[in-house]
Amino acid sequence: MSRTPKPKPDRAKQRKDPPIAHPATIRAFQRRLIAWYRKHGRDLPWRRTRDPYAILVSEVMLQQTQVQRALLYYEKFLQKYPTAEDLAQAHEPQVREAWDGLGYYARARNLHKATQQIVTQHRGKFPRNPEELTKLPGIGPYTAGAVSSFAFHRDAAILDTNAARVLRRFFGLVPRQRTPRFLWTVARQVTPKGQAHVFNQAIMDVGATICVARTPRCPHCPLRPVCRQGKTTAPAGSV
Q1: Catalytic annotation on 59?
Q2: Residue 173 pLDDT
Q3: What CATH number corresponds to the domain at position 169?
Q4: Sign of CA dihedral 15, 176, 145, 93
Q5: Which of 134, 140, 178, 211 is the most exposed place for a label (fewest CB within 10 A)?
Q6: Domain ends where: 100, 134, 152?
């Protein structure tokens, strides 16, 4: 009787990415970010809820839109469509009207379709894992990680423009390490287990308010004592 040969192990899957820095450096990075955020984090309405629908609305609005502008529409939109079911049942022209002024209307269409899919395919319950969330229309890896970590407190990494800038500067990444794929690897390595929901907000806030693109405020940064680039004030326009 012949035996079915065992499949050979996928060595590529077994191979782990080398750590981006010494574990002590990563722990200091995590600790300093979270401590700073608990004192100085921005008070935003979508941070006062764990409703995945409300969080998804905010994340879709914040795609290619500044926070201050999204604030003008967020609560009004939720007043008109307070649940995923309410939005799913709405007609597309009504959804567009509620979105009017935010621009990039494909976002509204995708949000509308995503809630319809949640209602019809998931019985109104949001998927909790990033992998499942990315199957919804208009939801990429960042939005999936944000909803998963903020609403469900899953250990999901995020990588937006601000977080990527902090990672590039703090770890002193060279040009070949600044690809989205590599940056996602770094983001997953440094996201602390059990604290992703706080850490993710913290790294975005530091990137948005201190580690900004053109003129980083290094003297005010909580990461400066252990940052590879911030030990001396970063020049204007540095990445």
Answers
A1: yes
A2: 95
A3: 1.10.1670.10
A4: negative
A5: 140
A6: 152
